[in-house]
Amino acid sequence: MRRERFQEENRRWWNSKPMTYDWHWTIRKAEGANAFFEEVDRRFFDSCFFAHKKDSIPFSSLIPYDRLRGRLVLEIGCGVGSLAAELSRQEARLYALDLADRSVALTKRRFNLYSLPGVIVQANAQRLPFSDNSFDYVWSWGVFHHTEDTELAICEVHRVLRPGGEAAVMLYHKGSFRYWVHLILIRGILMGKLMKMS
Questions:
Q1: Is a pLDDT exceeding 80 seen at residue 176?
Q2: How would you label 24-48 residue by residue, b for 16+ Cβ within 10 Å and e otherwise?
Q3: Hey, where are the domains in the chain?
Q4: Which CATH number among 3.40.50.150, 3.40.50.2000, 3.80.10.10, 3.40.309.10 corresponds to the domain 2-190?
Q5: Which residues of 76-112 are buried (b: 16+ CB within 10 A; e: fewer)?
Q6: Which of 31-35, 126-130, 186-190 is predicted with the least confidence, judged by mean pLDDT?
Q7: For residue 108, is pLDDT > 90?
Q8: pLDDT at 172
Q9: Full strand arrangement of the beta sheet holding 72-76
């Protein structure tokens, strides 16, 4: 019961604040328009500069796109579809899910707008609506630490992966190099935001 209540609150929060990388509500484009998605992508991909090979597609340093062509791929926590769209463009047989209905609606809107193939569903990472051994590859970027039970969500990834399948999961960690250098030293101290941001 506690788990369901937590996840329902979590879903409500993400419905009110979809992952648009717009921390100060400065995107002035109509939500769901081409220009809106382009601005979200620019912000997201710029913030993850370390994940791209020079002059290549977004996240090319972390996602083996060439090995995923024609393979069944699941993205858990698609947000508004930035990486889901790229996985689809690179010819993965994509399934993407998010806990938030609004994120799912925006990702579906993006896929319709750009005529991209893929299955987008609203679901809970702690109870994936897929059979055992369904996917060749599971991708999740900054999602599981938001769940009530991170271990359960990771067990679900293991359950839906085929034997020999791969998972790539990113979790935030307060003790990481990026946290101390980028957030505390550069943004916090040098840019003067330490006491202004939670």
A1: no
A2: eeeeeeeeeeeebbebbbebbbeeb
A3: 2-190
A4: 3.40.50.150
A5: bbbbbbbbbbbbbebebbbbbbbbbebbbbbbbbbbe
A6: 186-190
A7: yes
A8: 78
A9: 119-122, 93-98, 72-76, 135-141, 161-170
Residue 144: which residues within 8 A CB-CB, separation 6 or more? 76, 77, 125, 150, 153, 154, 169, 171
Residue 119 identity (one-letter amino acid): V
Give the three-class secondary structure for 141. strand
pLDDT in tens, 24-53: 789 999 999 999 999 999 999 998 888 999
Which among 171, 93, 172, 184 is positioned nearest to 137, based on CA atoms? Answer: 93
CB 42 within 8 A of CB 131: no
Q: How confident is the model at residue 198 (pLDDT cuts 50, 70, 90)?
A: low
